[in-house]
Specification:
Distance between the termini: 81 Å
CATH topology of the largest domain: Rossmann fold
Oligomer: single chain
CATH superfamily of the largest domain: Alpha/Beta hydrolase fold, catalytic domain
Order of helices and strands: HHHHEEEHEHEHEHHHEHEHH
Number of domains: 2
Number of helices: 13
CATH architecture of the largest domain: 3-Layer(aba) Sandwich
Number of strands: 8
Strand content: 15-25%
Strand order of the largest sheet: 1-2-4-3-5-6-7-8
CATH class of the largest domain: Alpha Beta
Helix content: 40-55%
Radius of gyration: 21 Å
Structural class: alpha/beta
């Protein structure tokens, strides 16, 4: 009898381990596997809506973007990541003769790529900046089989900054990002070796932390609790992607930053909850400003009110970059 109980207990433990691994792998593949990113888009109506908004700009703006792409071909640039994976990372550089030492790094969002950021690249270019637009790891033409959610990407950002400084040691740089790109620039802001050439940061609808946005999505999409699903997903993420979902915090990085920062969010954002902008804003102990665009969903702020959006960006940025 005792032997049967031991066998049953051992079998139960094995089944629990298998179930734990299955759940962890399922949600890792669903949200972080670069090859499965379209599956997440199809399963997430909030992100579908926001991606559709990002793709469907006003006709006038779309024509301007198309014209810009034809008239201003980019130069491709590559770097190799400094982690053990040694990934080949890709970026597009738009050199601007009148820009002198003004540079912008424009960072795309989740499941997007640099080439989808034309409207933002164009606006910085027309304002007199050289622009570098990277493909984050696992996106566009950059290597990587997982999505870093900004955490490993923060280290890659330092490489792109270094590339700019090799070309222009006197560069004055603004970091700008939307959604996961917003989280990326916030996470970059707290790095001890962030060069002083980075004068100002603008983030648009970035999340407070990776764990918080995933916990929110678990409940919103699946009605599932944090435990044990997030724990299982985190175990698999540490094994397959090499980072901890609970460690990847924009709030903690922003709290260490010394760089002035503008925070932008739409008050109808249902993918990255609107309340998260207050978390990162309150964490910042730097010169800062917050812009809330009424009626704007996720990634929709620039489209809903482009005049207020860009006027606020330029007024803030130009305090630190002449």
């Amino acid at each position: 009898m005792k032997k049967k109980i031991i066998i049953l207990g051992a079998s139960l433990v094995i089944l629990l381990i298998i179930a734990y691994g299955f759940v962890g792998n399922y949600f890792y593949n669903f949200a972080l596997n670069a090859d499965q990113e379209k599956e997440f888009l199809e399963g997430n109506p909030h992100l579908q809506e926001s991606e559709a908004v990002l793709a469907s700009v006003a006709e006038e703006a779309k024509l301007a973007d198309d014209r810009f792409s034809k008239e201003h071909p980019s130069i491709q640039m590559q770097v190799t990541s400094t982690d053990d994976l040694q990934l080949n990372l890709n970026a597009f550089v738009y050199e601007n003769d009148p820009a002198e030492h003004k540079w912008a790094i424009v960072v795309h969002g989740y499941t997007s790529k640099a080439k989808h950021m034309t409207r933002y690249v164009r606006n910085f270019y027309e304002q007199g900046y050289h622009v570098l637009a990277p493909d984050l790891r696992g996106h566009g033409e950059s290597e990587g089989d997982y999505i870093g959610m900004g955490w490993h990407d923060r280290k890659d950002m330092l490489l792109w900054i270094d590339q700019i400084l090799q070309k222009d040691p006197e560069a004055e740089i603004v970091l700008f990002g939307v959604s996961m790109g917003g989280a990326t620039v916030m996470m970059s802001s707290g790095e001890e070796d962030l060069p002083e050439n980075v004068k100002v940061i603008v983030e648009d609808c970035g999340y407070a932390s990776v764990s918080d946005v995933f916990i929110y999505q678990l409940d919103d999409l699946f009605g599932l609790p944090e435990f044990p699903v997030m724990n299982a997903a985190n175990t698999v993420t540490k094994l397959r992607a090499g980072y901890d979902l609970y460690e990847a915090s924009a709030v903690e990085q922003v709290a260490k930053s010394t760089t002035p920062m503008l925070f932008i969010h739409g008050d109808q954002d249902t993918f990255v909850p609107f309340e998260m902008v207050d978390e990162v804003y309150e964490a910042a102990n730097v010169e800062k400003e917050k812009l809330i665009i009424p009626e704007a969903g996720h990634g929709d702020a620039e489209k809903v009110d482009p005049e207020t959006y860009w006027n606020t960006v330029w007024e803030f940025v130009e305090k630190y970059i002449e």
